Amino acid sequence: MAMIEISSSPTSTTLVIDGDLDLAERDRFPEIAARVVGLRRQLLVIDMCGVTFMDSTGAAFLITLADSSRSRGGATVLRGADARDLFVLEVCGALDLFRVEDTCSHTKQESGFQRPAGTGSTPSA
């Protein structure tokens, strides 16, 4: 089960995700989305540094959050998504909904996971 933590400041909401963001988590997505949207902050930061796997269901969840933020005039930052996650969003045609930050100060590096160079590029088969 993924751990999803929501925190907020006067101007932003941060969603920190650890674990798999996939079909198994989908029943939790509407409640989490409602909480994030209810905070009504201009900036949404989605910290993906701890995400171990994301499928199209997880991507749809992130797209829903970014759409909601954009419809209110806000912005969504995707922090620490790896090449695989960015590829899923790109295939969905939704990568332009996010400002991508390639910064992780914890988790993947500490666990020995090395992020591939050129995170924005399409992974080779």
Automatic annotation (TrEMBL):
<protein>
    <submittedName>
        <fullName>Anti-sigma factor antagonist</fullName>
    </submittedName>
</protein>
<dbReference type="InterPro" id="IPR036513">
    <property type="entry name" value="STAS_dom_sf"/>
</dbReference>
<dbReference type="Pfam" id="PF01740">
    <property type="entry name" value="STAS"/>
</dbReference>
<feature type="domain" description="STAS">
    <location>
        <begin position="2"/>
        <end position="93"/>
    </location>
</feature>
<dbReference type="InterPro" id="IPR002645">
    <property type="entry name" value="STAS_dom"/>
</dbReference>
